[in-house]
Amino acid sequence: QVQLVESGGGLVQPGGSLRLSCVASGTIFSIYTMGWYRQAPGKQREFVATITSGGSTNYADSKKGRFTISRENAKNTVYLQMNSLKPEDTAVYYCNGVLVVGGAYRDYWGQGTQVTVSS
Question: What is the pLDDT of residues 10-26, one digit of tens each?
């Protein structure tokens, strides 16, 4: 019954911006880390950014400066603000959460949201 649901993807022109959201729901004792990964066609899933419940962030080097991860702990929600988007950013973006569920740390993935950067 634990679920991560992403939203906010879509089609955007190069140089544009999008804000992705991910909400964790279900019987969750606490959140250790939430973050974002992406997967382009024919490629492996790659790390984008993570944030702890305390606000510590980690970014892939190539995303630093353009992407910003943030969270609202009271809503069990994490965001990814993406600016100056490039065609190479086109991918399915997945929300990931390491959550304390049933007395253990467990890894969860959302269903993904498509981001397409194109003219």
Answer: 999 999 999 999 999 99
Confidence of residue 62 (pLDDT cuts 50, 70, 90): confident
Interstrand relation of 46-52 and 3-7 (parallel, antiparallel or unpaired): unpaired
Strands annotated E in 15-112: 18-25, 30-39, 46-52, 57-59, 67-72, 77-82, 91-101, 104-109
Q: Are 8 and 16 in contact (CB under 8 A)?
A: no
Neighbours of 20 (CB within 10 A): 22
- Distance CA(108)–CA(95), nearest Å, equals 8
